[in-house]
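Notes to self after the Tuesday call (sharing in case useful).
The group wants a holo model before anyone commits to mutagenesis around the pocket. I volunteered. Ligand is S-adenosylmethionine. Logging inputs and output together so the record is complete.
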Amino acid sequence: NVHPLPPSALKGEGMTSQRARDRLATKLKEEGIRDQRVIDVIRNLPRHHFIDQALHSRAYENTALPIGHGQTISQPWVVARMTEALLEFGMPQKVLEVGTGSGYQAVVLASLVPQVFTVERIEELLRQARRRFRQLGLTNIRSRHDDGKLGWPDEAPFDAIILTAAGDAIPTQLLDQLSPTGVLVAPVGSPSHQTLIRMRGDGQGDFIQEELGAVSFVPLLGGIG
Ligand code: SAM
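Result:
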C-alpha cells in the first residue's frame, strides 16, 4: 500500500543523502520503531527538501530543526512513532494533520494513506509546504490556512487525526471529527512536560486512551498566525 515517490523527487541528489537516510532508518529501528512501511518511507523521503539550505548537512540527524517563525520540523523518530501509532489498527483512508509546518509529516502520511488533509496557522509556512508537495508530485494532500483546533468539518469524519503541536487538552472539535473507530495521536501537556496520547474510538461513542511516552513539541496556538 506504500505509494513510492516519483523518481523526479530524488533527481539531482547525491549518494551522500541516500547513505545518510539509510543510517537514519537503521537508527529508527534500533530506537524501537517497528513498522517497516514507515521506516521505508523515511528511508526514501528527502528530508533536506523540507528545510533551509543552510541546514542541509543536518537533515538526516535524528533531531528537530528550525523552519522559521519559531517553528520546527519534528524529530524523525517522533514522526515515525506517531505515524506507526496511527496505522497500528489498520490503514486509515482519510487523515487530518493539525500543524503542517514544513510539510514533512504530511508527505510521510501521503506516501502511506490515500488522502491527507493538513491545516497550518502560519500562512508563509503553508505556502512553502504547498510548493514542496507540488515539487514532489503529490496529489493526495489538501491543505488550508486556519486554526487547526477547529479541524476541517466539511471533510469529517477522519479515520485518523494527528496533532503536531502540544495543547493542554485535546480539542473536542477534533474528537467530534473522528470516525467511530478512528485513532487520534497528540502530544498533550505543558511546554516542560508532555505525553504522547492516543485516543481510539470504541465504535460506541467512547474512547480508549493510552499514553505512548514523553515527547517535546512546540505549543498549539490559537487563532490564525
Ligand atoms: N508536522 C510538521 C512537520 O512535519 O514539519 C511539524 C510542525 S511544528 C512541530 C508544529 C506546527 O504546528 C507549526 O508549524 C505551527 O505553526 C503549527 N500550529 C500550531 N498551532 C496551530 C493551530 N492551532 N492550527 C494549525 N497549526 C498550528
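Two things stood out.
Residues 7-215 form a domain with the Rossmann fold fold (CATH 3.40.50.150).
The pocket of S-adenosylmethionine is lined by residues 71-74, 98-99, 101-102, 104-105, 119-122, 125, 147-149, 164-165, 217-218, 220-221 (CB under 6 Å).
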